[in-house]
């Protein structure tokens, strides 16, 4: 038969099916409608959807028509389906030839009500409806079976065409650009595999729905291809998902597989990341397959929407002869969830994804399970609480009781049997719950205490965690709380670093509990180093230690009653979790050993290096992820950070004496800058601290320090010493804090010192000279000079207030020489002496001019001889005739200088 005949036959059959579907919809609205009729209605609608899909394909892609022409042959699948549909319609009294469909449907409903009253007749009708349904299902399977190879053939032709356009390297580039690698996902999967206990996940292999889903796509004709495994927190859904992924991967001969783990800690909508990662896996497995929409976006340098990604998934899935298996874990942890659930429902139910088996796991959240329940039979539900789970759980508990030495030593079968049955019965399918209870019970000293504990077992996993926390000894609670906060924040890069960091808030009197004696003897110093075993012993089953360097898996409960209950000490606010790492790393700097305490140069531990590396990042002012705001707005952090920036802190001496400059420059440039003293830092701690803050340009923290009780409680002499104590950085002159800020142009920092620290320039005789040197030609120069004069800078400075020595020239003479009219006016307003004609012998340290040009000359004389900045060079000056005043008499600014000087001078020059 010609292709056009196949299309016409499909259209004709679709019209009949649509009519029949309407009849069954009306009937199924009746209370008397049986399950058989409702299932028949679903089958009719599924068949209609399939035919519409085939017709759409044939119209959009002419290559498909020859592959599907046999469907419309005499006695073929379309004709037989037409017969089955006609029988379904006839059996409920419908007539497709009626010109008035609405009247016909009303008549059908009335006849159907009468029919259901005759029980014997209705029983026969139901049997015939069931047989007609089976015939229709068989034809649908044949049509589906014809469609999939046809689509696969066309897709393969498209793949070959794309391969001819792009090289293997270009295809990989296209995939990497739109669907980048995700190493985190691989690490998560590896960790979940390690958490699997032997045989604990075997129960799912006995579930009928799962067994059928593992078969090739052809099984979807008779069985559901969409599965949702649901359970309460702690039931082991994630570990089960990892086991299923491994099973699918082992069986993948000619089918594809992909997986995705949602995580609450990401706090994002997982829809797009899920689609991208799944597509990357499937395209990579298919030897860098590039879907047509990806190719178009790659060539146009465009983007892909969610609909585009779904189209790509459809195309990629059809390229696999035996279908694709996708596993998605923890759908409930997507935030928000709505988009992800809708996309998964579409993949699991729409006919175009017929080649995909989809399995997801989720907690029993209404937002997730409500949508799944609406799908009806299109999604198979498997509960984590069933007899198969219980059998595996019982086996696991039995093996653990046999293997754990504390239980095994009692050799009491009756006692162990009671423990086994109690844990199995109350676990409610939660493997994690059972693991935690076993960990708690093995810490008991005798069978009596174990039996007492069995009488008061917690109901769920969160009650279990709360009980474990409550039973942590008082002296270990600070250690445990810090460990849990750091794990939640994913700060420490290793277990060794984590356990060392946990000591930061342990009371000093309890430190001896964590001292590692062998290390003390080896290094000859007091070094507190807890071990990973310490962490395991204290936290028990709350934590697990792996060899993977990956983000931790955490279970959080945000119910307020838990935070105010018996375990409220361990409640972690968002603020604490976010900033705990800052307090740990900066406090860790105080644990650095002093080099002279050891007979040899002490090695830097992993924890010490971690503290330096993380504080180096925290000190950086750049980037949207800068931690400086977190520090400035947290009073507890401020004290710790300020202490770490005081030059007398232990790590300063350690770094200076033991760490090569090249290493510091490469890894810790911020710390190098604040350790860069020529000899020794200032003896006065506030001076050294503020110098370091100035070097780091951290004016916000300087403001908080100057406003703090620590600074405000300093005596008058100590505050004065803060501003006047000299120091010397490498390759720099000896100077004071205020002088350094002027020389380095840290003017905003300088204003903080004056406004909040009451700093004064009355003891800075060279302040104006330095300012004029660094501010010349700057737009805010006048404002800054005015600020200095208002802050105590003397317009007529002396090198030493207690002597008669004078500078070689005054700031006013300098301002006139550089022809800065506004500066001269400001200095005169502030009381500068315009009559100075002979300077002293001391030349300011920052002068960049020939002082003989201004000494022994009045300001008017200097003005006449000065060379304006806009004069190109000395040759031009010599080429000009007459005096400077004659040459530039037309310049208004020079006239203003002359008038001002003449007016202000009491003795004319």
TrEMBL record:
<protein>
    <recommendedName>
        <fullName>Nephrocystin 3-like N-terminal domain-containing protein</fullName>
    </recommendedName>
</protein>
<dbReference type="InterPro" id="IPR036770">
    <property type="entry name" value="Ankyrin_rpt-contain_sf"/>
</dbReference>
<feature type="repeat" description="ANK">
    <location>
        <begin position="807"/>
        <end position="839"/>
    </location>
</feature>
<dbReference type="InterPro" id="IPR056884">
    <property type="entry name" value="NPHP3-like_N"/>
</dbReference>
<dbReference type="InterPro" id="IPR027417">
    <property type="entry name" value="P-loop_NTPase"/>
</dbReference>
<dbReference type="Pfam" id="PF24883">
    <property type="entry name" value="NPHP3_N"/>
</dbReference>
<feature type="domain" description="Nephrocystin 3-like N-terminal">
    <location>
        <begin position="199"/>
        <end position="363"/>
    </location>
</feature>
<keyword id="KW-0040">ANK repeat</keyword>
<keyword id="KW-0677">Repeat</keyword>
<dbReference type="InterPro" id="IPR002110">
    <property type="entry name" value="Ankyrin_rpt"/>
</dbReference>
